[in-house]
Design goal:
Blueprint (H helix, E strand, L loop, with lengths): L11 H14 L28 E9 L4 H4 L4 E6 L12 H5 L6 E2 L1 H13 L5 E4 L5 H13 L6 E5 L5 H7 L5 E4 L6 H8 L4 H16 L3 E2 L5 E10 L8 H11 L5 E5 L20 H14 L3 E4 L16 E4 L2
Parallel strand pairs: 2-4, 4-5, 5-6, 6-8, 8-9, 9-10
Antiparallel strand pairs: 1-2, 1-3, 7-8, 10-11
The chain binds iron/sulfur cluster.
Iron/sulfur cluster binds next to loops.
């Protein structure tokens, strides 16, 4: 089977239409479910603080993602500044909220970064926290396609997208990599400052799955299409982790990719919150891992508990359930 990135076969006129629609969406920004409805084209700022230009905090070859994404070449990661969530335990808070390190760029410059990552041997374009810059990203992919970009697009997000935003991405994204952060709205509000997270994430993840299907890797084990869900375990089961797994099994299926992450560590503002100012419990975590096996997920990467002691953990020592 010939494998190629989805956007390479997207009709040129349709691509241009999507760019125009996406730019227009900034007149009344509802790209995510914060639904700020402000005019970013006129310089207004919403809850994420993102303006009219894309802002990149860091880009480069990233070896710390799960093996299907990092592989031999590494993920071609682009970390965008700002975020539409305000997680009190954010491990990327310097990127998301410390504005002095941002770098404001136009779509052509963003496309050049994608091409440089391809030249450096990246095996994908890994867009990290992208949704608030979705219009600029779509245009950048269009421009870099003309210059020879062929890598699959990985959309690494928090599942708080609006349906309109996901419709714009149809035919452009190859692998959706959403975090399913909580199955509890009051926890999502308390620790990430967002409303209606559970219903939004459920709908967004279903829509993502409808767009790209089961998680699929090539003969070298590199991700090239499908849905890959991440779940960060929080102390005291604040994320309602078992319910997240039940939902995925019952509503999406076991052929997705799944990553269970133990890397939680109380950083940023979490040290001031009793229930978050601790490590996750090993007994709880081991039960959750057993439950993943019982449910029968086919392709799982499970971090070992020691990952919480490493600031930027990788998955080299993760437990893997992969049915070939
Ligand atoms: S992307 Fe930013 S401005 Fe737009 S709705 Fe979300 S938080 Fe508000």
């Amino acid at each position: 089977m010939r494998i190629q990135a989805s956007y390479l076969s997207l009709d040129n006129d349709l691509f241009l239409q999507k760019i125009e629609q996406a730019k227009k969406a900034l007149d009344h920004c509802c790209l995510c479910k914060q639904s700020c409805a402000i005019n970013r084209n006129l310089g207004e700022l919403g809850a994420c603080g993102a303006g009219i230009n894309a802002e990149v905090a860091h880009w480069g070859i990233h070896k710390g993602e799960e093996p299907p994404f990092a592989g031999k070449g590494g993920a071609g990661a682009i970390f965008f500044s700002h975020c539409n969530l305000k997680c009190v335990y954010c491990q990327n808070f310097q990127i998301s909220w410390q504005k002095q390190i941002k770098d404001s760029i136009n779509p052509m410059q963003l496309g050049e970064i994608m091409l440089k990552l391809q030249m450096q041997g990246a095996q994908n374009i890994d867009l990290v926290s992208p949704t608030h810059f979705l219009p600029q990203i779509i245009e950048a992919i269009y421009l870099s396609r003309q210059q020879g970009l062929t890598l699959p697009i990985v959309y690494n997000t928090n599942a708080y997208e609006s349906e309109a935003a996901l419709a714009l991405l149809s035919g452009i994204v190859d692998v959706y990599m959403p975090d399913f952060k909580y199955f509890n709205d009051s926890a999502a509000f308390q620790y990430s400052g967002i409303k209606n997270y559970v219903s939004t994430a459920k709908q967004a993840i279903k829509t993502m799955y409808d767009a790209v299907g089961d998680f699929t890797r090539d003969f070298q084990g590199r991700a090239y299409r499908g849905l890959f869900v991440r779940h960060l375990v929080l102390p005291e089961n604040l994320a309602s982790s078992f319910k997240v797994l039940d939902f995925l099994k019952q509503n999406i299926g076991v052929n997705i990719g799944l990553s269970i992450m133990s890397q939680y560590s109380p950083c940023y503002q979490a040290q001031r919150i009793d229930e978050l100012n601790k490590k996750i419990d090993s007994v709880f975590y081991n039960k959750l891992v057993e439950y993943v096996e019982v449910l029968g997920f086919e392709q799982c990467w499970i971090q070992e508990l020691k990952s919480s002691e490493i600031y930027f953990p990788d998955f080299q020592s993760s437990k893997v359930f992969v049915k070939e």
